Amino acid sequence: MSIIRTRLLGSCLGLALIFGCSPTPSPENIGTIRRDGGYQAQYRDPVKFDPDTVRLVAPALNAERCRETAGHGAKAGGAQALIGERLSRNDLVDVRVGDDETFNGDYVISNDGMLKLPFLPPVRAQGRSTAQIEADLGAALVADAFYEDAPRISVRVADFASVSVGVSGAVFEPRAIEIGQRGEVFDSARQRALGSSTENRNLSTALRAAGGVRPDADLSSIELHRAGQRYTLDMRGVFAGRNSVDVMLLSGDEVIVPSRQCFQDDLMRPSPVSPPGVSLFLSNLTQPATGNAPSAIGREVREMPYGTRFLQAVVDTNCVGGARSSNAHRSAVLVTRDPVTGVSTVIARKIEDMLHRADRDDYDPYLMPGDAIACYDSGVTNVTEAARAIGTVATAGLISR
Questions:
Q1: Residue 72 lies in a domain
Q2: pLDDT at 380 over 60
Q3: What is the pLDDT of residue 194?
């Protein structure tokens, strides 16, 4: 029985340590989280709540670090030259020269960006409108003596191909991307008809495919580099309910999104250029949930709407609620990464404190794609688990005797 007493004594000592231990201190970080909030001011440690001076300051703190916007969009001769449909490599076009069977037919824009009809010199098509191509074909037919006067010519897009473009700067996943692919299901009648069009090759589609713009993006001066020319585009209208300059992209285009070097709270909402959602890595082993599977947490991640906040996520992971006597006073940890510096940050929050303070929004971070959240049990739950462990040890000792 001495062995049992020894085991029980050790378990009780562990129980006393668990019950009497002080709260876990705030995690250490390389980033200056405590002083100025890091990437977003909502990361900073909560101060003692004073109901007499309740005011929300996080958006103002974020805005203090913002650089001036680079501009108000493209000037004359800039974006205007990009508006409208432009052809790109591998686009399918229907060409008709009157009733001339020699030239009539379907053609694909070649990899060098040229439209090549039989017996005629190639006509430049990359980045040009169908009207411009029609004019060049008419001139070529007259110059090569096929016609004395330019005939009636029609160039119509039968199908837009996908395009490869590069997107870099203040987006969550800067990389080379392919946009404009058709889905598995399409309207066959529309596919056969002339005048094909698509929104899948637009600038907004490319930004979204690159993970969406970050909260520090300067949407007033997005750069588009095409064929040695640099254009500046203003996309702020997508967050203001206005039409924006959403131009069609071509293969070989490069898009650069500059950064204002600050967190902009007003960009943390769904839009045509925002991330499609937030993928979170979650861990919840607290009571009343007995594990991730009963909590309906996937094997790796869970999708949440863009603009979700920390408290919303901990509620979604069953980390809030239950019996007050045993499940209150939980805490949760957010593991995130500064998208500008690439440095990881860990933020700890006492959930009950956050729920009760009126200025909770000032310390309730917006979630970024790829963030991770872990919940910790309350002290009472820890004691319960320890007591269960003591019973298990005692039972095992009796059996061994």
A1: no
A2: no
A3: 66
